[in-house]
Design brief:
Elements (H helix, E strand, L loop, with lengths): L5 H14 L9 E7 L8 H10 L3 E8 L5 H11 L4 E6 L5 H15 L4 E4 L8 H12 L6 E5 L7 E3 L6 H14 L11 E4 L3 H5 L9 H13 L3 H5 E5 L2 E3 L8 H21 L3 H4 L12
């Protein structure tokens, strides 16, 4: 039988105490960060510094069934700031859309944050700018959501590959047509929603793993009407955004994505019309905060 030294036992107990810690602080904002196989690239120091400087923000790090030691890395950073870092572990990989969905519902159920959103783990958008978005949203309470927009303009450092293919341009036009509004950027990984919208937007699984951002807006339109995006969603022009890795569309994507978009159009705008819109007999959600 292997003897475990008292000191190791004590360290293990302390670590478990930290992981089981229930924060007493009320977090105004909650940021969900989906993580898959991030062991070697996770921005540990950046997230740690942000968490310690901003106790009002809850960081929910979602391990999306990673095959490497991502979960251990996330548990490690949780021990460094237990008051506002929590880890949600998904044993099986579900893809980014499912990791975001599960994380949003977990936060909504267990914490009282009034604004809940998500951010990509690669920090193409920084957590500091995500927080700026949240505070900007508070100045405009009539809007139900705020989303980052990577618009090239004077004074902004938006590092994107402008030599995009024709297919990418066509896909953006298809998205604008489906959403029936001049939305500039649906795919930016920084989005924030007021609390009362989270159950409605994230209760059901998304139809696609990578176009779930478009689905979010289609769900909003299906519930509140065609002009929802104009009346209820703020686009926030980011000051900083850096492209991480090669995100150019591959040949198979140029075929698959338009087909998936047509599938979304059929599912959300042709297949079914919400009874609350057609008959006005069911209670309506409000874009206004509770």
């Amino acid at each position: 039988m292997t003897n475990i030294s008292p000191s190791k036992n004590r360290v293990s107990q302390l670590r478990q105490t930290v992981l089981d810690h229930t924060p007493v602080i009320q977090h105004q904002y909650a940021m969900v960060v989906p993580c898959y196989n991030e062991e070697k690239r996770f921005a540990y120091q950046e997230f740690k510094n942000f968490a310690q400087l901003h106790p009002e923000v809850l960081l929910c790090l979602v391990n999306d069934g990673s095959k490497d030691k991502t979960l251990a890395v996330l548990r490690g950073i949780q021990t460094e700031s237990p008051n506002n870092i929590v880890v949600f572990d998904m044993p099986k990989n579900g893809g980014k859309s499912e990791a975001v969905r599960q994380g949003m519902l977990f936060v909504h159920k267990n914490y009282n944050s009034k604004l809940i959103g998500f951010l990509d783990a690669d920090l193409a958008t920084t957590p500091e700018e995500w927080l700026m978005m949240a505070k900007y949203k508070e100045d405009y309470p009539k809007f139900g959501a705020i989303v980052g927009s990577r618009i090239q303009r004077l004074g902004a450092e938006i590092n994107r590959d402008d030599s995009r293919s024709l297919a990418s341009t066509v896909i953006k036009k298809i998205i604008k047509t489906i959403l029936r509004t001049n939305f500039q950027d649906t795919q930016c990984g920084a989005k924030i929603f007021q609390r009362n919208l989270v159950p409605f937007l994230f209760k059901n699984q998304f139809q696609t793993p990578w176009l779930f951002d478009v689905e979010i807006f289609l769900r909003l339109q299906g519930k509140f009407g065609k002009s929802t995006l104009q009346r209820g969603v703020l686009e926030y022009p980011l000051l900083h955004w850096s492209e991480i890795g090669d995100s150019r569309l591959k040949l198979k994507d140029t075929i698959k994505i338009p087909l998936q978009l047509l599938g979304l159009y059929y599912h959300y705008q042709l297949k079914s019309k919400p009874k609350s819109i057609l008959k006005n007999k069911q209670p309506q959600f409000s874009l206004q905060p509770n």
